[in-house]
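Input/output pair, single chain:
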Amino acid sequence: MKKLMMALAVSALVFGAVMTATPAYAQDAGATGELVTADGQKAEAAAPQGTSFIDVVLGGGIVGLILWLALFASGGFAIYFIVDGYILVRPAKIMPQALIDEVKEAMDQGDVMKAIEICDNDPSSMAKILKAGFSHVEEGFDVIDEAISAAGDLEIEYMMQRLNWIQICSSLAPMLGLLGTVQGMILTFASIALTGVEISSLSLTISQALYTTAGGLCTAIPAIMFFCILRNSANRLVLRMTVVTGDIIKNLRNVEVVEG
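Output:
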């Protein structure tokens, strides 16, 4: 929970810093100088145009709007898969203690059929792995060990495939942002070719183009952090599951199947 709160705080700081950069710059620029007319009278400064976030989103035309929608979708999917990852990578879901206790009790009694029945009634990954081993109890310990290893690899791969969607979102967002920046620069240079160089307009369009890169980074940085946290948690769970599974199946070396 502490890691989750820390990652959320960093994400909020990054997003807030980027989203407030342009308005703060405009305010500072207006406070450091005054406009005067030809006769030396003080002129009213024109209000900055196109500096709001809505103006930035709409300033890139149809293509820019599509890219922003793709960025928002990437961020939304990243949040969804992060929440899904936290639901998935939990000891209570992967290897519930109640299942471990019941299976150990059944194995202490030498009742493999009861252990299989317990695993049938539990949807966790560890139950599937143990059931794969118990299903080959008559074929020897080596076959049991191989079956458990194969089932474990499948469950780990399934877990990592779901977590990898976070990494995909974190990789896709900066690329979308860079594409938006390139598209904005193309529009900027096309405008220069048609109307000539106007510093204020040129600076505004360039800043609008760079906003997409900033938006992509604001999505990618938290997503990478959460992916690393969830991946490390998954690896720790896998190591624990390996140790517990080995402790349970060691009793299968000399056990006999009892059919009621």
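The longest helix spans residues 141-195. The chain has one domain: 2-18+64-253.
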